[in-house]
Design brief:
Layout (H helix, E strand, L loop, with lengths): L6 E3 L27 E5 L2 E2 L3 E3 L5 E2 L1 H12 L7 E5 L5 H6 L5 E2 L13 E10 L1 E6 L15 E5 L3 H10 L4 E5 L2 H10 L4 E5 H10 L4 E3 L7 E8 L3 H16 L2 H9 L14 E2 L15 H15 L3 H6 L3 H14 L15 E13 L2 E11 L11 E11 L2 E12 L2
Parallel strand pairs: 2-6, 2-7, 10-11, 10-12
Antiparallel strand pairs: 1-19, 3-4, 4-5, 7-14, 8-14, 8-15, 9-12, 9-13, 16-17, 17-18, 18-19
This protein binds glutamic acid (GLU).
Length: 407
């Protein structure tokens, strides 16, 4: 079992506020103190994010960015859009050129060393785009001796290099639209990146191009923020949760991403993403009451006894717990269809440590069972790191962090 891709915290939404951080006010003029954002997006990915001739961008990532800005108190005319090509995203965040990036940006362990992610807000998988007449390429293993184009600095190019390089002649370009031009011109045999992006190009050239439709990775898109800007990261996560909860997310998916028969995956469970798991402390001396409370909490989760769990949770954790119970318990998840009615889960404790007389860490793991194939990407195992605090002599659950686990 390998833990990758995503480190997430649930202790998020309650600290969300409407106001922008000082960092984000920099571009406001003296006369106009309204908060503003500079947001990095793609300019050439149809359906996801395209800059229009009128200077207005459109697409699902743009809707997501605009929703986040509005939720954080920034008006549309106080947003400055900047093109953030695949390879530029980390630098644009580190240098402060943008406040955040919403640009088909996969959360990955390698990137989390350089930037922080809020989300995820969309799931997809890497696929192949070919010319309509192409009969030989039906999966990446069939690329032997052929040429494929992808964007520099992308997880897509990395995947080809890592797993298919022996057979494939990889061309790396600055953007996917350059790759698509190469494909149309016949200088490459395929373009490879996420299915949701390729579907937009196929819909733009329906007579010439088609998506193979055989995804071979799992991508989770996150909103990139400057490494360590936990405040902004947390507020963006709250905004994404609100966008899914009020139906705006689904409306934008329907309007932008369903062209050409592409079937988007349901909205992912949204957490918040610290960059490193909380380290467990010294587990040699455990308060017996702590052990009992920890075991009781696991029992409550398995029994779906949320009333009892709320009773042993700190006030500041209540809203987060409610939100995540709504998303993590399959039958409560309004994104999902009736196919998931038999999905169940099993929570187990995987460690308990006491870091001081009044604080402790409870590790837990959730495994989902009876998951239909269609939802395998959705129900990943989750490792939880729960922070317990002793308040007035009673152990309480005060924060929750989670990692998706890839098997
Ligand atoms: N999601 C992949 C990545 O972040 C490919 C798409 C892109 O380059 O924007 O690298």
């Amino acid at each position: 079992m390998k833990r990758v891709v995503l480190t997430v915290t649930l202790a998020a939404t309650l600290i969300s506020g409407a106001a922008c951080s000082k960092d984000n006010d920099q571009s406001s003029s003296a006369a106009d103190k309204s908060p503003s954002f500079t947001i990095g997006i793609k300019y050439d990915q149809p359906g996801m994010s395209v800059m229009g001739a009128d200077g207005k961008p459109r697409g699902f990532d743009v809707d997501t960015a605009a929703y986040i800005a509005n939720n954080l108190g920034v008006q549309p005319d106080h947003i400055t859009w900047k093109e953030a090509r695949t390879e530029q995203r980390e630098d644009m965040l580190s240098s402060g050129a943008v406040d955040f990036v919403v640009a088909s940006y996969s959360i990955s362990a390698a990137r989390q060393k350089q930037v922080s992610f809020a989300g995820p807000y969309l799931m997809t998988g890497q696929d192949l785009l070919v010319r309509q007449g192409e009969t030989g390429i039906d999966r990446p293993e069939a690329l032997g001796g052929r040429s494929v184009c992808s964007a520099k600095g992308s997880t897509s190019a990395d995947k080809i290099k890592k797993d298919f390089a022996a057979d494939v002649n990889l061309t790396a370009r600055d953007t996917y639209s350059q790759c698509v031009d190469d494909l149309l011109a016949g200088t490459v045999d395929a373009v490879s990146t996420d299915g949701v992006i390729l579907a937009g190009y196929a819909a733009t050239h329906p007579d010439q191009l088609r998506v193979v439709g055989h995804p071979f990775t799992k991508e989770r898109y996150g909103v990139g923020v400057k490494k360590g800007n936990i405040d902004l990261q947390t507020r963006i996560t709250g905004a994404i949760q609100a966008m899914i909860a009020d139906g705006s997310w689904q409306r934008s998916v329907d309007a932008n991403l369903k062209r050409g028969g592409y079937q988007p995956l349901p909205a992912p469970p949204v957490f918040n993403a610290p960059d490193a798991p909380i380290a467990a402390g010294d587990s040699t001396k455990l308060d017996p009451n702590l052990v009992k409370t920890g075991n009781d909490m696991i029992t409550m989760v398995n029994a779906k006894d949320w009333t009892s769990l709320a009773a042993v949770s700190c006030p500041e954790a209540q809203e987060t717990l409610r939100g995540n119970v709504a998303q993590l318990v399959p039958q409560n998840d309004t994104n999902l269809g009736p196919e998931v009615k038999d999905v169940s889960y099993d929570a187990t404790s995987t460690g308990l440590s006491q870091t001081s007389p009044d604080s402790a860490t409870l590790l837990a793991h959730i495994t989902y069972t009876n998951v239909p194939d269609k939802y395998k990407q959705y129900f990943k195992d989750i490792d939880f790191t729960n922070t317990l605090s002793r308040r007035d002599g009673t152990w309480m659950l005060c924060a929750v962090n989670a990692d998706f686990v890839e098997s």
